[in-house]
Amino acid sequence: MQRGNTISFRQGVVKVITRADLQNCRIWKRAFHNKCKDHRYYEIVEETVEGGFEYRYLLLEDGSGNTRAIQPVFFVRQNLIEGVPGKISSIVNRVRKVFPRFLTMRVLMVGCAAGKGDLGICDERDETWVASALQASLSTYARENKASLIVLKDFPAIYRSKLEAFPLNGYARIPSMPMTRLPLPYNNWDEYFRTLSKATRKDLRRKFRKAGQAPKIEMEVVSDITALVDEIYSLYLAVHERSPLKFETLTKDYFRTIGQRMPERARFFIWRQLGKIVAFSFCLVCDDKIYDECIGLDYSVALDLHLYFYTLRDIISWAPKQSLKYYYSNPLNYEPKLHLDCELVPLDLYVMHTSPLLNPIFRRLIRYLGPTRHDPVLQRFPNADQL
């Protein structure tokens, strides 16, 4: 039952609030205290990321009035075949000539608009309760806001046991495009390099020789990119526009703000040749992990100099010097990551149509639209069975 901005369910209530309501909320600052992307990151994303998102926050209270979680959610109109190649896409595009919004729906998404999903819990012991409370209340909230779909977006596989209430109650769990991880039990690049296959080592030597024959490329690492944002942003857009999957578009304000508000975690790697920035990588550092969030390349030289591999070598060389033990990379571009001995980090989508009549059909259909079905490289990873 929903009254105004409150949804009642058996275990308690959900209050729908905005970010303005969170400004003096002590619990909000604890909601993601053990995550690399803490409450500050969600605020930055809402303020700066483009994509037509309508942001809300669900404050979950139990029957005694105790706040157990604050869960970020957002509404967006989503093309369900984004990035799906081949026959399915061509069939849908023909249908859209008659029905322009076919398989384009208003979606209620749970999680982060620019990153993987997490539960906004204050205490890890509350994960199961919070998952159950969300499952009991999301459908009501979605229908009241005319959303056709509910999606828990990119939740790591470690949540599967906690989120089991969702597939047991009408949701389809399908694999999203996974992240990758490279353990770094090495002191330097050379130690890691010797663990790679002979063919990969030969290929990388050839690539690095070519870059070495060009004018010298120098690297700098900064936490605040404000002074350089105009230069690096065009490189970000150059890579972003080539991506087959475009969910969100980061902005100059995103890059500026994240360095200013999260300076202890933000790291911008800058590569210059003859004084000109030819590549950058934005990373987050947290505990013993480094997360490579996005890259920008100057394509007038990037392909010829194999700058993707050059930048990766420099980051992997830098990380052990900072006592970092794991390198994480965002989804896509899996071919080089396979040869560099990265492992997959599965992410899950939990999806349900808000119509009880249509959902049984939709649960079958959505498995054919899942993004991982159309990337043959994924199945070559040793741990692909975990997807």
Helical fraction: 25-40%
Give the topology string: H per helix, E per strand.
EEEHEEHEHEEHHEHHEEEHHEHEH
Terminal Cα separation, in Å? 36 Å
Uncertain residue ranges? 95-100
- Largest beta sheet: strand ordering: 1-2-3-4-5-6-7-14-8-13-12-11-10-9
Radius of gyration: 22 Å
Shape: globular
On the 0-100 scale, what is the average pLDDT? 91
Kindly state the number of beta strands.
14
Global structural class? alpha+beta
Count helical runs. Answer: 11
Percent of residues in beta strands?
A: 25-35%
Q: Which sheet architecture does the biggest sheet show?
A: 14 strands, mixed
Structure, described:
The chain is an alpha+beta fold and 387 residues long. It has helices spanning 39-48, 86-96, 127-144, 189-193, 198-212, 229-240, 252-261, 302-305, 307-321, 334-339, 359-369; strands spanning 2-3, 6-9, 12-17, 54-62, 67-79, 104-110, 149-156, 172-183, 217-222, 266-273, 276-286, 289-297, 326-329, 343-353. It has a 14-stranded mixed beta sheet, with helices on both faces. A hairpin with a 4-residue loop joins β4 and β5 (67-79). α1 (39-48) packs antiparallel against α7 (252-261). The longest helix is centred in the middle third of the chain and has 18 residues, at 127-144.
